[in-house]
Amino acid sequence: MTNQLNQRILAHFQESAELKIQAANELAVPISQAVELMFLALSNGNKILACGNGGSAADCQHFAAELVGRFERERLPLPAMALTTDTSIMTAVANDYSFQEVFSKQVQAFGQSGDILLAISTSGNSVSVVNAINAALERDMRIVAFTGKGGGEIKKLLSEADVHICVPHDRTARIQEVHLLTIHCICDGIDAALFGGDADD
């Protein structure tokens, strides 16, 4: 049993490492585009709203925490908000309307022209996230979408003004692992755009 379990664990690590090497070559350009889009928005006094479900909700909160707090360098707080944290808003909207509108209502309330929506869905088909993207586009916001599995419905909604970071894999756990690394790359890129160089420079 122990040997079989060890083999399963090693297989997870190997698959994750191989995907990250593959994804690095495919995703470096869109990740750098996301950094530029977000940095420009933040420099212009705009903010970033983030939404997703389940593990993707946790990723939204992680991202917002890194910007409002810090990533690896001391700096002023940057305006980012996860739309996954206010249980009163979410349960009110889910109860009075539907869960599919829990993010779109908040985008309509808080989003402004020039803001960014970070939309995370491993399948690309989450209806609540799709609705948030539509609400953001109506408000002249730009979209940075994290997906996998080919991009799903979200891929169809994006224009050249938006950024699509689609992990080339079908397994949700692996997609989420690359999404987390992507968040760290974006946070580091924003810090580098603010300060240049590395944290030790």
Automatic annotation (TrEMBL):
The keyword Magnesium does not apply. It is found in: Cytoplasm. Residues 38-200 form the SIS domain. Gene3D superfamilies: Glucose-6-phosphate isomerase like protein, domain 1 (3.40.50.10490). Keywords: Carbohydrate metabolism, Cytoplasm, Isomerase, Metal-binding, Zinc. Belongs to the SIS family. GmhA subfamily. This is Phosphoheptose isomerase. It comes from Undibacterium aquatile. The gene is gmhA.
